């Protein structure tokens, strides 16, 4: 995550750094699937902030947006019911995924649809319905 945070600095806008950003987020998307749930829960705020900032500043790059969508999916899947009901960041990140599901780019739209579907089909225990549906 520190490489991602370094690349988000204001001076990081040339083509080489954009390529690094895409590569780093792609690797993060692969790694996030294998990170244990307790770690994702414990470091939720520390992970969500740089991912959101990166997505906000580099929305024009479809590969980067798809990778961050995957990261957000795994991050949100790891959260428990208490976090979903008390932490506004979870709901904001879910709203970001919903907004991306209306994106004009087909691959970004498809990836965000998959993320939303997976999130809603796996509610955090013990609830029967996902807190984002309320």
TrEMBL record:
Keywords: Membrane, Transmembrane, Transmembrane helix. The chain crosses the membrane at residues 20-40. Residues 15-122 form the RRP12 N-terminal HEAT domain. InterPro entries: HEAT_RRP12_N (IPR057860), RRP12 (IPR052087). Pfam families: HEAT_RRP12_N. The keyword Transmembrane helix applies. This is RRP12 N-terminal HEAT domain-containing protein. It comes from Blyttiomyces helicus.
